[in-house]
Amino acid sequence: MTAMISADVFTSAAAFADAIPLHDAAKLTKGGNLARIALNGQIYSLRITRQGKLILTK
Length: 58
Hints:
This protein is of the alpha+beta class. It is built from two helices and three strands; from the N terminus they run ααβββ. The chain starts with 6 loop residues before the first helix and ends with a strand.
């Protein structure tokens, strides 16, 4: 049995995705590979690895 997915599901998913902020990691690091992010009085480090992956540490 093949499930049918209505167009409304895709429209809702697209609207939801548009509501989530999107940030460019390269801009956060100002072209480097490290940025600091503050949340609730805590400082976190966001690092871009040589392989182009992200690591977030406290």
